[in-house]
Amino acid sequence: MIKLANFFVSLSFAGYIKLIPSGTFASFLSIIILFPIVEYKIISLEIFLVIFFVIFLLSLFFINKFSLHTQSHDSKIIVIDEFLGVYLILIFYDQIKIINPYVTIMLIFILFRFFDILKIFPANIVDRKLKSAFGVILDDLIAGIYTIIILYIVNAYY
After folding, report:
1. Rounded CA gap, 75 and 22, in Å?
2. Domains of the chain: total
3. Which residue from 125, 113, 124, 133 is spatially nearest to 73, judged by alpha carbons?
4. Which residue segment(s) compose the domain that 19 sits in?
5. pLDDT tens, 82-113?
6. Nearest to 155 by CA among 93, 112, 97, 111
């Protein structure tokens, strides 16, 4: 079970990449995986949402297993939370598209990493106080929400 948890939370071992920060690599990889699905509407939004919730629930379970096994909290190896943050943003892709898909994806990547690294309120409190699998994921979902808000605002004035 721990091997499966490790594979899942590290996003197919992407969390072990040491050339660049694991969160940055995982965010980039997440965009590569998810962008074609939303841009080319490979699956419906409803199915995309269901898959998000399944991955979210599995993440809670596997992060908990991995953290207990490694006796760590929010290890750098755990990058499924970045995947979920990017996934959340792309649920709103049709509402936040700007200029062209490539500019939009670049802005998503930059803004998400900015908010994920800075951990602006309430993400900073979640990161410090919630020492659980939910806390590991929630700060990235907050970064995703901030990204969505900024892109909505930019889109409104563009």
Report:
1. 10
2. 1
3. 133
4. 2-157
5. 999 999 999 999 999 988 999 999 999 999 99
6. 97
Give dist(CA 85, CA 25) in Å, integer: 13
Secondary structure of the chain as H, E, C letters: CHHHHHHHHCCCCHHHCCCCCHHHHHHHHHHHHHHHHHHCCCCCHHHHHHHHHHHHHHHHHHHHHHHHHHCCCCCCCCCHHHHHHHHHHHHCHHHHCCCCHHHHHHHHHHHHHHHHHHCCCCHHHHHHHCCCHHHHHHHHHHHHHHHHHHHHHHHHHC
Contact predicate 116/54, CB 8 Å: no
Q: What is the pLDDT of residues 120-148, one digit of tens each?
A: 999 999 989 988 999 999 999 999 999 99
- For residue 122, cis peptide bond before it (omega within 30 degrees of 0): yes
Report residue 51 as tokens. Answer: 């898959």
Nearest to 49 by CA among 93, 112, 6, 4: 93
User: Are the CB atoms for 135 and 62 separated by under 8 Å?
Assistant: no
pTM above 0.85, yes or no: yes
Let me know how long the chain is. Answer: 158
Tell me how far apart the alpha carbons of residues 158 and 154 are, in angstroms, rounded to a whole number.
6
Q: For residue 114, what are its two tokens?
A: 């900015």
